[in-house]
Each structure stands twice: as C-alpha cells, then as structure tokens.
Design goal:
two-stranded antiparallel sheet, about 270 residues
Length: about 270
C-alpha cells in the first residue's frame, strides 16, 4: 500500500519541516505453503512489515539540515512523523539538496522503517510566513574543486545498514552501519573551470598527489545556502575525490562542464599509495 500527501507538515526527531510532498510505501512478505492432508494453501507472514518514507521540503532555517546530518553513520532509530502517521523505528537511507540560480533550494530525505506505522492526528506547524533558501543568493566556495562559479549543484548522501532480527522477536535486535557515501555534482561554465584542478589523474598518472594539489587528491568545497534576504541558512561541505567530468556544447551557448566529487565515510582522506 502507499499514501501520498501534498503540502502537509512533518517532523524528524522533533524537528519540524515545511514539506512539499510526503510519500509512504509499505510491504509485507507473505509465504504460502501446503501440507499433506489438506487441499488448500495456507498463508503466513514471512517477516515484520517494512516500509519507506520519502519527504521533500523547503530549507528555511538550516535546522532541517543539521537534524539530518547528525544521523550520518549512526545506527540509532529515529522518530518520523508525517501527516497522520508516525514511526519510532526509522533509519536514514538518503538525503539530497538541489539548487540553481533561479529557484528555491529544496531538500529530500528518505527513511526505511521497521514494523508498522502508527496513525493519529495530522501533524501541524502553523501557518507563519517562511523564507526559504534560494539558489540566486547561495554562495559556492568551490575553487579547490576547479570552478570559480557554478550554475547548479546537487548534494546527496546515501547510507546502508545490516539489520538483524532474532528468533521470536518482532523488532530488530541489532543494527550495524555498513557504508555511507556523500556526492557533490556541479554544473559549471567551462571558462570558470581550472582544468589543472579537475584532472582525473595525478601528476604521476594514476598515483595520488598530496592533499591540496591538483590531480588525484582530496578536494574540499562548501555550498553556503542563503535566502533572498542575504541571511545564511546553512552550509554543506564535501571533502572528496573527483570521480567524473564531462563537457557539453551546442550552437549559441557556452560550453559547460559537469563535475562529480565523491566521499566515503567514515572518511580518512588518505588514498592508496603507489
């Protein structure tokens, strides 16, 4: 089954969100079996219900982001309330922020929850005026990433876990964090791109170069989210390696490039030695 609500309030670990959309999806594995002496199939549930919650929202204070980034690499369950439903057994699976020069900065977050949802009254956070972050006011500090200005950005995080159930238990007994990845994708004008900084390999071919130099080395960058009043809302950062780049051109348009930087965490920033 699935539910979808538009323009409804939500909260994660007590932090309120101005949701643009909320979506739930839940599934239950069913096992069919037949036995000697019967002429019909029998049905049992193979495991506890499991589902996902997807939430897109407007970034207004930055607290929406810090509440999520505080869950990077963590295994503790968090509570999520959205519309008339809630759960206290959710794990962060994905998070992203997107922005360009002509639109609001929007975030999206995904959770996997274990066990069923609890229903109740719809979440409400009032009707006060909000001022979301806007790409036209946002500042990109990405010189180390090989660009002096950007056209758009896409910041994303994904996490995975090993969730274990015990015999006779209807709730997970243990959760182990397995892997996390942060990615920052930038679209930049080619004349703003330092090809030395965006070299896919180091000075010695595929060997790494010292941190802070061009080539295959960890690069750092910041996206400072601001609203149209000039107020800083939040900052997202990356300290990763250039994974891909491409260039595109068409008549009467500037040549643009797309750069993708990836970071694994827990992060050591130490590449393999040659």
């Amino acid at each position: 089954m699935s539910f979808k609500f538009q323009n409804m309030a939500a909260s994660i670990t007590g932090q309120n969100y101005y949701a643009k959309s909320i979506q739930f999806a839940e599934s239950l594995d069913i096992e069919y079996f037949d036995a000697l002496g019967t002429n019909s199939f029998n049905v049992v549930t193979a495991e506890e219900p499991q589902g996902t919650i997807s939430l897109s929202f407007y970034v207004t204070t930055g607290e929406e982001i810090s509440a999520i980034t505080g869950q990077y690499g963590k295994t503790g369950f968090v509570s999520v309330k959205a519309g008339p439903f809630s759960t206290d057994s959710a794990l962060l699976s994905s998070f992203s922020l997107q922005g360009d020069s002509v639109g609001l900065v929007e975030g999206s977050v995904g959770y996997t929850y274990y066990g069923g949802l609890v229903s109740g009254s719809a979440t409400s956070i009032g009707s006060k005026t909000i001022t979301p972050a806007h790409g036209g006011a946002t500042i990109a500090e990405v010189e180390d990433l090989g660009a002096s200005s950007i056209l758009s950005f896409d910041y994303s995080v994904s996490q995975s876990y090993d969730v274990r159930y015990g015999i006779g238990s209807d709730i997970p007994l243990g959760v182990t964090f397995t892997e996390g990845t942060r990615t920052l994708a930038l679209e930049a004008q080619t004349q703003d791109t330092s090809f030395n900084q965006t070299s896919l390999t180091g000075a010695d071919g595929l060997c790494p170069t010292p941190i802070g130099e061009a080539g295959l080395a960890a690069k750092t960058g910041n996206i400072i989210l601001k609203n149209l009043c000039g107020e800083t809302v939040s900052t997202v950062d990356i300290s990763g390696y250039l994974e891909s780049r491409d260039f595109s051109a068409s008549p009467n348009q500037n040549v643009s490039s797309n750069l993708t930087f990836t970071e694994k965490f827990p992060n050591s920033n130490i590449p393999g030695e040659c």
